[in-house]
Amino acid sequence: MGQKELKRAQRKFGIVSGRAALAFLLMAVTTGLTVQARSQTASATALREVRDETGRVVKLPAQIGRIVSLAPSLTETVYALGLQDRLVGDTEYCDYPPDAAKKHKVGGAINPNMEEIAALRPDVVLVVKSLNRLETVRALEQLGIPVYSVDPHSVNGVIESMKRLSGVLGAEDAGAALDAKLRERLAAIHAKLNGVAPIPVLFVVWTEPLMSIGGKTFIADVLERTGATSVVDSRQDWPQFSLEEVVRLQPEYLVFASSHWETVHNDVEALALKPGWSALRAIKNRKIAIVSDAINRPGPRIVDAVEELARQIHPEVFAEKN
């Protein structure tokens, strides 16, 4: 960029600093070229319209070659569908399978870097409504980048969502195979638990403040499929409530995701001495179930979480017979 162009930009935008002008223009040019390139590509490529799970109509290329995922569950789904070679970027929290950690990082799920995403020239960016912000979706749309959103609320919804996404990404056969495999495993777990009385549990999202899950979340559905039932009855997805109320409800088990458990497990003995916590039979009897973080991710490992928890709270059902 020459001095004349820089001075012209300074006059136009009222920028005093040459360094600031240069940085501004470089960002504008980069973004402009990205949008222009996408527009030219789109005009030369057949587009199709799909409706995502929030009801938005999204225009996508007939063939999806470059994918950016803004949620760990969606990254896992892309891998489960065998499309990892098309995944050009994901978030800092996308760590499973291990190869996902090697992908180009575009920031977090809540605050992704728009310039990083645009530079990757994705054909589609995948988001989860309950995790990613609407502002992120709108910002990407302003850059001319298509965004497809998923919004599952149950285990069955998670499986259906993955199959639907496989069609959007052009991996229908892999999606059908994954769907059949997961449903077969769920049926086997259900058959083992047939006739088993559900155990009241408290899924602990956080201890301070005390937070659990509402009845309309997919985690609540996971609990039910493990032969458990949440003692919390709330319309909120992530309700806070008092320890006194938990003592009144007396869950038989406390359930933690492994990542949270790592931060509190050293405090269990301390909890047992605290007023309120010490009155919980689950604490007294050390009935605490630890489940992998798959329980927090509406993706292909959700059935792993179901089986993992079911084995812990109903060991007699899953005991190997000689």
What does this structure look like?
Residues 1-44 have low confidence and may be disordered. α6 (155-168) packs antiparallel against α7 (172-193). The protein has 322 residues and is α/β, with parallel strands linked by helices. It has three domains: 3-37, no CATH class; 47-151, Rossmann fold; 196-318, Rossmann fold (3-Layer(aba) Sandwich), CATH 3.40.50. The strands form three sheets. It has a four-stranded parallel beta sheet, sandwiched between helices. A four-stranded parallel beta sheet has the order 8-7-9-10. Helix content is 45%, strand content 13%. A hairpin with a 5-residue loop joins β1 (47-51) and β2. The termini are far apart. It is built from 14 helices and ten strands. The chain is globular.
